[in-house]
Amino acid sequence: MSIPTPSQVLLTSTAAYASTFYLSLPTSPTPTRLAKTREALSVIHCTVATALSLACLRQNSDALFPALPPAAPPSHTPSHVDPRASESALPLIATRSAFANAITAFETGYLLSDSLILLYSVRLARRSNVARKSKQQLVGLNMRHLAYHHAGLSAALLYLQWYIHHGREKGVLVIVMMMLMNASSPFGTLRWWLINFRSGRETAIALATAAYLAVYAVARLGLVYAILAVWGRQTGVSALEAFGGLRWQCKTGTGTMGAVNIAWLVMGVSNFVCRSLNFNVKPGG
What we know:
The protein has twelve helices and no strands. It is mainly alpha-helical.
């Protein structure tokens, strides 16, 4: 069975998500109904994207954990050679995969449609005569910020699609690994739904929050370490040394992402502990 081209997947993903969202709404949706529909589709997408990413990484496991040749004696390594000169030849970077390309196109189409849906949601909430009530109900969901975040990601992935179209993509497996961050979103949506629409179920909310924080730590922080560890293994260094050896652009992006995720996790755990101890602290995230 042949894999569709990235262009076909991109167009199909964009159209399918937008049309499914539209057909799922009543004629005059309220901001609350729109948010519920969008979150339900988000859970489906994140689950499918995570499963596809895992399948792709399993298919390309030889590129992640190749059989490495014995290290050459130090005296055989010319001192004038830049170690980063051969980075593009590493299996993690050089490996190309039609399956991986299709997954990135699938994600790009979703993010494009979702950005527009989120912006429409913000506009509807602002103009609706029930906007005030809706904003009070939808705790923990800033659609404007999420729209900008998804718009930025879709722009970056569209840039990647240009490279894929011209057969010049590099590091696509790293992108697929990072898409495993989608794994935490369904747990966050469950927590959001319980807080907003089943607020009396305190035990369920506590369990959902604990599960979300645990999966978030693994999928958002542990994953970054795992990528650096794979990179380090293929360059013969530790994960920390691999981070230190990254180009400044990659180091800045990875460091910023890690710092933001750590800060959010610390705030989330802190608020969860305070609520568990019956402190009157507003939930965060």
